């Protein structure tokens, strides 16, 4: 059976904090995407994505990077000093979802005019 795309459900900051604390793995995997895409306050969305990087699950961490890319696309803001170290660490360590991390960093660089890991990204894209 073919998967069917469903839009992400809105999430409030309070609900997001609850999911971080006691949500199921499936909820935590989707949370950074939902936060980045649907939360109105970009700083609250960024906070949820940053907290999601603490997960032991590589999919949650990869989606945290993608959630930050959603914020960059839709709100055109991120705090570089907070997100840069997390993105670089994930790029180096999350081999299972490296393609997603590369896409997220590429989008963030494009939308925010940053130059995070450009040489490393070029090298990884040719491997």
Write the layout of secondary structure elements.
Layout: H1 13-22, H2 25-38, H3 42-52, H4 58-75, H5 80-93, H6 98-112, H7 118-126
Helix pairs in contact: 1-2, 1-3, 2-3, 2-4, 3-4, 4-5, 4-6, 5-6
Characterize the structure shown.
- This protein has 127 residues and is mainly α.
- It contains 7 helices and no strands.
- The chain has one domain.
- The chain is globular, with a radius of gyration of 14 Å.
List keywords for this structure.
127 residues; mainly alpha; 7 helices
Tally of alpha and pi helices? 7
The figure for the number of domains is: 1
Structural class designation: mainly alpha
- Give the low-pLDDT segments: none
Assembly category: single chain
Distance between the termini: 32 Å
Can you write the helix and strand succession as a string? HHHHHHH
- Percent helix among the residues? over 70%
- pLDDT averaged over residues: 95
Question: Rg from C-alpha positions?
Answer: 14 Å
| Largest sheet features | none
Which shape, going by the Cα principal axes? globular
Strand content: under 5%
Find the count of extended strands (DSSP E, 2+ residues). Answer: 0
Task: Give a brief outline of the structure.
By secondary structure, the protein is mainly α. The chain contains seven helices and no strands.
């Amino acid at each position: 059976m073919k998967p069917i795309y469903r839009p992400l459900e809105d999430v409030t900051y309070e609900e997001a904090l609850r999911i971080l604390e006691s949500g199921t793995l499936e909820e935590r995997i989707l949370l950074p995407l939902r936060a980045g895409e649907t939360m109105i306050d970009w700083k609250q969305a960024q906070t949820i994505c940053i907290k999601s990087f603490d997960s032991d699950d590589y999919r949650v961490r990869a989606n945290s990077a993608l959630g930050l890319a959603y914020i960059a696309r839709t709100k055109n803001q991120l705090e570089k000093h907070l997100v840069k170290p997390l993105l670089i660490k994930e790029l180096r360590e999350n081999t299972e979802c490296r393609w997603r991390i590369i896409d997220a960093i590429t989008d963030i660089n494009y939308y925010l005019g940053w130059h995070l890991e450009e040489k490393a990204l070029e090298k990884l894209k040719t491997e």
